Amino acid sequence: AGRPNAAGPAGDLITGGYEPVVEEPSDESSGSRCITGLALPIHSSRQPQLQQPMQSAANLYVVVALSTGRTVRVDIGTAVAAAAATPRSARGTSDSSPASYVGKDLFYFHCGPLYGLSADSTAARRLCATVGDDKKLMLWDIEDCELLAKTALKNPSRCCHVDKSNSFVAVGCSSGSLTLFHLSDVLQPHSNLFKVLEVAYRKDAKADTTDVKFSPSNDMIALGSHDDNIYLYSCSFELTSSGSGRGATETASCVLRAMHKLRGHSATICNIDWSADSQLLQSTCNAYELLCWDVSTGKINPTVNPADVRWKTRHCKLGFNVMGIWPAYSTGSEVNALDVSVEKGLVVTGNDSGGLIRLFNYPCVVKDAPHRLCPGHSAHVVNVRFFAGSDHLASVGGRDASLQIWSCT
Could you report the per-residue pLDDT of 360-381, keeping only the tens digit for each? Predict the structure, then answer.
């Protein structure tokens, strides 16, 4: 996902004749590696000119995808002129590589396996957050197909969640830490991307995190972990802003306090859901346990029937209302992720093989429930999410490092 942020028309990237460019082995000056590139003739119009003879180097540019997740444009004429002015003894060094003459970044992408996905919808924009092994948090505006903001993370990450105001993002990292970020309305200097600032950090879990959720009341956070426990935190936010335009400043702060450590599962936590009133939690684990928790006490509530509770999200893969998603002779590992749209009466699952997502009617309670197969990913589908109040859903494909948007019609 992402529309090129170049000043020129996006069509310049895909029209005209092209030839593969020899791959640059490394770019030591920036710590990145050129992984692919295309040489394209610069035209005054966007119409293909495949019959024209190859133009001079001065009229060519190279679109290069770097291993750091940047796609840049290198004007060959600039590079050739600079190389001609470079002493022969200095040629071939990192200072004379094509990446040394890049212009503005065209667009950005994830360059490692994707795991975390959060999708929400507001009247202003449809926001989608993604994290993965490349240590990046990226936030996308799905309505306009462009990147809104990005920031570097300290560790590979497995889960993320955007709060109901679309202003704060909780990220669970493989180190067991929880980090909160603020998505500012202020643009970065010399960029069309918004600022993302870290506002809180805690590390209580002893293993990788698996799921994180803001409560519907927006004053608590639940974090699941590989250490078989769920960690509950209280959070309070404060925002102050001044000025306007590019001169505007915005300050955010968050106080994050530990509330409870929920013990009861016998295996790695898989999914967490909050009730609509923020009083209950339901969770599943790799031992196929479905437990319901009282948030105020931090204890299991054995009297609650999860099927009778109105849940804010429905991401747990176990339960009466979704028992029809499992195929015959299931081992329990076929479904990686699940989401429910009560408004549309649909269940979507991300499968562990074939790069498939499956679409069921909701409730899904019959054996071998009818469904629609939707291929698209080239790796395991590790996460799926509906956009609230929308006909769209999002999926991430793990090792194919892609975010895909689907229309449900």
Answer: 999 999 988 999 999 999 999 9
What pTM does this model have? 0.81
pLDDT given at position 212: 97
3 state SS for the chain: CCCCCCCCCHHHHCCCCCEECCCCCCECCCCECEEEEEEEECCCCCCCCCCCCCCCHHHEEEEEEECCCEEEEEEHHHHHHHHHCCCHHHCCCHHHCHHHHEEEEEEECCCCCEEEEEEEECCCCEEEEEEECCCEEEEEECCCCEEEEEEECCCCEEEEEECCCCCEEEEEECCCEEEEEEEEEEECCCCCCEEEEEEEEEECCCCCEEEEEECCCCCEEEEEECCCCEEEEEEEEEEEEECCHHHCEEEEEEEEEEEEEECCCCCCEEEEEEECCCCEEEEEECCCCEEEEECCCCEECCCCCHHHCCECCCCCCCCHHHHHHCCCCCCCCCEEEEEEECCCCEEEEEECCCCEEEEEECCCCCCCCCEEEEECCCCCCCEEEECCCCCEEEEECHHHCCEEEEECC
Convert the pLDDT of each residue in 106-134 to its tens digit.
Answer: 788 999 999 999 998 665 567 899 999 99
